[in-house]
Amino acid sequence: MPSDTPPPFKRHDPTAWTRTLAYRDRAVLPYDGAAYPIAATLMLDATVYIDAQRPGRLPAEIAARIATAPLLHSAVALAELAADLGMLDPGHPNTPVVRTAIEATLHRIAPERVVAPSAEAWAEGAVIAGTLARTQALARGDRRKLLNDALIFLTAWEANAVLISRNKNDIDLLLRFRPDVQVLLYDVG
What we know:
It contains seven helices and five strands. The chain is α/β, with parallel strands linked by helices. The N and C termini lie far apart (43 Å).
């Protein structure tokens, strides 16, 4: 890291963020797929893997892009899916179907297409998530989820990939800190 570049934990001054951020209108958020070249490398948020399991849930434009574009997979998003395997209730009648779907998704992903956040992304993501946890008065469970979202978000930036997500609220907040991250949001069908 060049000496004139601040360390990741110093890129954002938490003391500059003192008010709760209002969520912005959908019209100002990145929902327009035409903003990115059709061949742009994509990274998928955990929401995409979940929505892809249900026919018709992903918008046709998003499904078509995922089917044809180069894909990278966030180690953090895959860890969220893998954690779901452990959290499933073995006694619930839907568990075998859900488990099979998650395992099939994880099995299909080539290890060389998995990207992990760097130490810098961890530090920057932690500062952003901590700041937002305070300003948004997030519950303890939501704080960890936001840290994961920040890590996925910053990993996409590090990989120069467009992050695909339906997580409008967290992405809206994260873009306040890093508007340079390429994101394509979608709504479920």
